Amino acid sequence: MNRRAVLWLIAIPLITGVIAVSWQQGWLRPPPAYDPFAPLHLHDRPTFVTAWKLLRLSRPEDCRAALATSQLQTLPVSDREMTAECRLEHAVRVGATGSETGLRFNASFLASCPLAVAWAMFERHALQPLAQQHFGARVTQLHHLGSYACRNVRGGTRRSEHARANAFDLAALTLSDGKRISLSGHWRGRDAAATPEAAFLRDLRDGACRFFRTVLGPDYNAAHADHLHLDMGGFSICR
Ligand SMILES: [Zn+2]
Fold it and tell me: In what order do the strands lie in the sheet with 109-111?
């Protein structure tokens, strides 16, 4: 055996061992926000792996762990099955004053665990930064139209994600300077550059699409003319 082959025989196990130890010790791991295997933490900056981590929230233990890193004040709700398709599993009730960033909701609401986590991510990483960017203000109040309802999709035969408290309808919000912005009053569709409020709402819709599976607003159909429907169901749509 020549000298080069002997060197390789020594070097390969050595390099492999160094890599294995470094991985085990966490020296080679990317920061948690970029590590697809790290648990989702609400304070982590959203990155290209965040959507993948949000998908993993369908595992109740992963979802509970993520929710525990949020500021949301929630009460667990016992599992209930009203009908085969209308049920609550691992749901929580989010308090009217228990938001992620200190805003007030018009009412407390039921939420599936994934919906609660996605909401907290959206509130922290999209809603408040966009209000700051567009108006130099904070969102202090948020008006929603509810989350749980045992019903079908409007005009359809399929059960709505609302039937599992897996959807939330955002209608309006109030900023710290007193300005009130509503979907019904300020959405301008393709003409989003028309007013600062319309531009903000368009960015808000796009921001929601980073965290929720389905986002449907006034551009989708008339049934959504006055709110953004945000859900964590199976369909990935952003309109
Ligand atoms: Zn809805």
Answer: 74-76, 92-94, 109-111
Distance 167 CA to ligand 1 centre (A): 6
142 within 8 A of 106, measured Cβ to Cβ = yes
What proportion of the chain, given as a percentage, has pLDDT over 90?
A: 68
Of the candidates 56, 93, 53, 55, the one whose C-alpha atom is nearest the C-alpha of residue 73 is: 93
Q: The pTM is what? A: 0.87
Rounded to whole angstroms, the Cα distance separating 5 from 8 reads 5
Please say whether the beta carbons of 110 and 77 come within 8 A.
yes
What's the gap in Å between 231 CA and the centre of ligand 1?
8
- Ligand 1: centre distance to CA 168 (Å): 6
Nearest-angstrom CA–CA distance, 214 and 226: 16
What is the average pLDDT across 152-163? 87
Q: What is the DSSP letter of 187?
A: -
Distance from Cα 219 to the centre of ligand 1, integer Å: 14
What would the mean pLDDT of 2-15 be, rounded to a whole number?
A: 87
- Ligand 1 center to 188 CA (angstroms): 20
